[in-house]
Amino acid sequence: MDDETRTYDVVVIGAGPVGENVAERTRSGGLSTVIVESELVGGECSFWACMPSKALLRPVIARADARRVPGLAGLAAGPLDAHAVLSRRDTVAANWKDDGQVAWLNSVNLDLVRGHGRLDGPRQVTVTTPDGGTVRLAARHAVVVSTGTTAALPPLPGIDDVRPWISRDATSSKDVPGRLLVVGGGVVAVEMATVWQALGSQVTMLVRGSGLLPKMEPFAGEMVTDALREAGADVRFGVSVTALSREGGPEGEVRAVLDDGSTLAADEILFATGRRPHTGDIGMETVGLKPGDWLPTDDTLRVTAIEDGWLYATGDVNHRALLTHQGKYQGRIAGAAIVARAKGEPLDDAPWGAHVATADHGAVPQVVFTDPEVASVGLTLEEAERSGRSVRAVDYEIGNTAGAYVYAEDYQGKARMIVDLDAGILLGVTFVGPGVGELIYSATVAVSGQVPLARLWHAVPAYPTISEVWLRLLETFRG
């Protein structure tokens, strides 16, 4: 046991991409910084979420694209090589070793303490190391919680015995299940259904609501539903699982009882039914907070419940936007704010200032890597109408652009922009179709920058590209 307390300017709990961004910003700003990690440096995104899931999806999407192109369609008609796909996934996930991530920490002079970090009173963190020892850390200026989230499982009878897949299992499985039940209709559910159906599983999706991707424009979920069904998946709406069992021992089949009394059998069952904050065992009670709660923050990422402002929360754990890129953005903002406060410098806290996470409000981009892809930023039509503003939705079939005609023989896609009629700016944009993920940054610039539509006319899209859809949307709006 190490009874000595090590003192730093900043202590960061969680060495995923969000925590890494905070730590790099504070260290580059001249503050001594230590980062604590209980698992792999690089976190969920690098090893169990963004990177392995997209490595699994890439060959699925590439094959789908090839099938749309005369001259390639026949070559892409066969099944995917599941062994090769899973092997590539392992390589992208660095075979679940974090040597490269640790080397990066060393290159920017960040100290690392491995172990389980817990708050232990104001500005204090205690780390239980893998060998059972204890390291005590004190922060002069800030402690930052970047511990992320974990899967939220429903309290169903038999769920513990079944040992269901969560997102980690779905992205790291070494084998392709013959039959897979997917419970949920959000991003993780549709992406993993896309992967495993393409790799040879018979996928059945069980969705409690009336459609997929319920937080996006309705046409997005409808088009993804059609594609999954065309690929062979069984997508069911308005159904719930009420009980579970696994027959024939640990490797036996899963039995899921549905709310109509029927039973489905499968080899594995994936629950993609939401996330909960990873704050249950990080010492929240020692600073007057409730274990297991989210950590709401102000726009400089300080936890609002802590009066003297030493505790920050970045990434999923604050529940502002559960997306890696948005968490990294928050990390950069928080790091800059911590440095400014530590040095007694004035805070640039006006909207779009250097020390406020303004883009978390109404300008959050997201891509769903299904076939077709879905990309969106800002508000949906329903959200915009609910805000009380005068708005208009402008739709256009992407397949009518010259770029889409070249891209595929029968390109199916749709674009929508939400116009604030009084301000003459965009509140939201959604694209659905092959390859649209690469369009979303332009939409993010337009929405976050509040670019007037009159000025967007002067942003000329190259011809023939799918980005020509911007011109067609503007022409449709003008009428």
From TrEMBL:
Residues 364-470 form the Pyridine nucleotide-disulphide oxidoreductase dimerisation domain. Disulfide bonds join C45-C50. It comes from the Bacteria. Binds 1 FAD per subunit. One of its GO terms (molecular function) is flavin adenine dinucleotide binding. Keywords: FAD, Flavoprotein, NAD, Nucleotide-binding. InterPro entries: Class-I_Pyr_Nuc-Dis_Oxidored, FAD/NAD-bd_sf, FAD/NAD-binding_dom, FAD/NAD-linked_Rdtase_dimer_sf, Pyr_nuc-diS_OxRdtase, Pyr_nucl-diS_OxRdtase_dimer. NAD(+) binds at G184, G185, G186, V187, V188, A189, V190, E191, G274. Its cofactor is FAD. The keyword 4Fe-4S does not apply. Pfam families: Pyr_redox_2 (PF07992), Pyr_redox_dim (PF02852). GO terms for biological process: 2-oxoglutarate metabolic process. Residues 8-327 form the FAD/NAD(P)-binding domain. FAD binds at K54, G117, D316. SUPFAM superfamilies: FAD/NAD(P)-binding domain, FAD/NAD-linked reductases, dimerisation (C-terminal) domain. Belongs to the class-I pyridine nucleotide-disulfide oxidoreductase family. This is Dihydrolipoamide dehydrogenase. The lineage of its organism: Bacteria, Bacillati, Actinomycetota, Actinomycetes, Kitasatosporales.
